Amino acid sequence: MAEPPAPARTVIENCAVATVDATGTEHASGHVVVSGHLIESVGPGPAPAHLAGVTRRVDATGHLATPGLVNTHHHFYQWLTRGLARDSNLFDWLVALYPTWARIDEAMVYAAARGSLAMMVRGGVTTAMDHHYVFPRGAGDLLGAEIRAAREIGVRFSPTRGSMDRGESAGGLPPDFAVETTEAALLATEEAIDTHHDPSFASMLRIGVAPCSPFSVSTELLRESAALARRKGVRLHTHGSETVEEENFCKELFGMGPTDYFESTGWLGDDVWMAHCVHMSDADIDAFARTGTGVAHCPSSNARLGAGTARVPALLSAGVPVGLGVDGTASNESGELHTELRNALLVHRLAGGPGALDVRQALRLGTYGGAQVLGRAAETGSLEAGKLADLVLWKLDGLGHSTIADPVAALVLGAPAPVTLSLVGGRPVVENGRLVTADEDAIAREARAEARRLARIAADAG
Ligand SMILES: [Zn+2]
Q1: Of 54, 145, 161, 389, whose CB has the highest number of CB atoms within 10 Å?
Q2: Cα 91 to middle of ligand 1, angstroms
Q3: Cα(73)–Cα(331) distance, rounded to whole angstroms?
Q4: Distance from C-alpha of 397 to C-alpha of 394, rounded to nearest angstrom
Q5: Quick one: 311 and 179 in the same domain?
Q6: What residues make up the domain containing 387?
Q7: Is 214 part of a structural domain of the chain?
Q8: pLDDT tens digits along 165-208
Q9: Are residues 219 and 128 in the same domain?
């Protein structure tokens, strides 16, 4: 039998390399060789000579190569409702927006997903996630719409099937018309896993189970969701400890704080990650560390809603896996993840002084830390031979960065760096700052049309 042909190789040379491996290996001038969908080698100096099958050679002088960024929390549909309830806290903001969100349909979610994904991918995201929990009756296949959008743009994707079943009449925050029944939510979640989940090493799509929050979900749905996820071998995600109001809600309704409540419903574990975790006691942090529960830290969203500052330095010291999240763009209108590296560093230094977080910790949060909380640290999140070729070349020799000698400091502290090349599984998704898999202008136009249609329908209904 003939040998199968060697996969195409891409050679990237003459750039600084921050591998974000376990010991933080960096090269002032190094190389990365990509073979097919995998990283073949990473090291100092030029790539090995006489490699066969090289189809592309990139002289990356003036650039920094890092792992692709991993987003760990988002709500794509909110792309259509940015800039509203601008001065509200979480609960008032939610109550203002639920009636509009309850009018979304498949075409809207598709356009919103394309906008959300394009914005992130253009800024160096190679693994995206989404937490979709609004499913109006008769709205079409909303999860399918965002999966289609991610496939077209070519990003690795961890969408979660969210849910809400605790409406106002059951003591919850969302209006009754915005929630599903417990049974319907569980059935649809199981169906989403069976239809879409791919557990393979190079998977482009992993489904998670994600009831929305303690104040919008019944105890039964939390318990049954955890059981379902474990039966199917998929991960669990929700919002936790985001605001003081949520903490008070849990104490009043359940007689305990959010972390204890989650633990009582089977919701702490190394297969769980939670968004925000702002209001955490020492005992809460210990519980996360003891169980391996991960955190999606969303500094801009927390600041936009005035929710507070998560205790990220304490979480990291305790050994809790922490990644970064954009969160929905109704509470973080920028929709970018690469700017969250800088925002995280600044927020924690304001709260904890100059030693609270350094530039390399910030880069780790946005890459390896994210891969850890999504359960994909063996596959992506660092530049190491044998891992998936998810990587970004940041241009650091231009006006915004050329006088900052340390490339990681330039990336984190400087202006948002242009992306010269971004690869997902070895496949280019960004070249010279532009998406190559979709038309950004068309996405912007279509998203605006769908945002206006949603606003019109909501106004007519209201
Ligand atoms: Zn969120």
Answers
A1: 161
A2: 12
A3: 12
A4: 9
A5: yes
A6: 9-67+382-435
A7: yes
A8: 999 999 999 999 899 999 999 999 999 999 999 999 999 999 99
A9: yes
DSSP string, 56-70: EEEE-TTEEEEEPEE
290 and 345 share one domain: yes
Distance of CA 430 to the CA centre of its chain: 18
Write out the residues surrounding ion ligand 1, Cβ under 5 A: 275, 327
Q: What is this structure's pTM?
A: 0.97
CA of 449 relative to ligand 1 center, distance in Å: 24
Does residue 99 contact residue 363 with C-beta atoms inside 8 Å?
A: no
**Average of pLDDT values for 317-323?**
98
**Residue 458 belongs to a domain:** no
- Ligand 1 centroid – CA 393 distance (Å): 29
Q: Does residue 123 belong to any structural domain of this protein?
A: yes
In a domain? residue 402: yes
What's the chain's average pLDDT?
96
Q: What are the two backbone dihedrals, phi and then psi, of residue 55, each rounded to the nearest 5 degrees?
A: -100, -15
Looking up residue 392, the CATH number of its domain turns out to be 2.30.40.10
CA atoms of 50 and 96, how far apart (whole Å): 62
How large is the C-alpha radius of gyration of the chain?
Answer: 22
The verdict on 352 and 396 lying in the same domain is no
Q: Rounded to the nearest whole angstrom, what is the distance from the C-alpha of residue 57 to the centroid of ligand 1?
A: 40
Same domain membership, residue 400 and residue 319: no
Q: Return the pLDDT at 2.
A: 64
Q: Find the 32 Cα to ligand 1 centroid distance in Å.
A: 35
> What's the structural domain count of the chain?
2
320 and 392 inside one domain: no
Distance in angstroms (rounded) separating the CA atoms of residues 367 and 373: 10
> DSSP alpha helices (H): ranges in 375-425?
407-413
**Residue of 400, 393, 383, 382 lying closest to 419 (CA atoms):** 393
- Give 427 Cα–ligand 1 centroid separation in angstroms: 30
Q: Are residues 34 and 151 in the same domain?
A: no
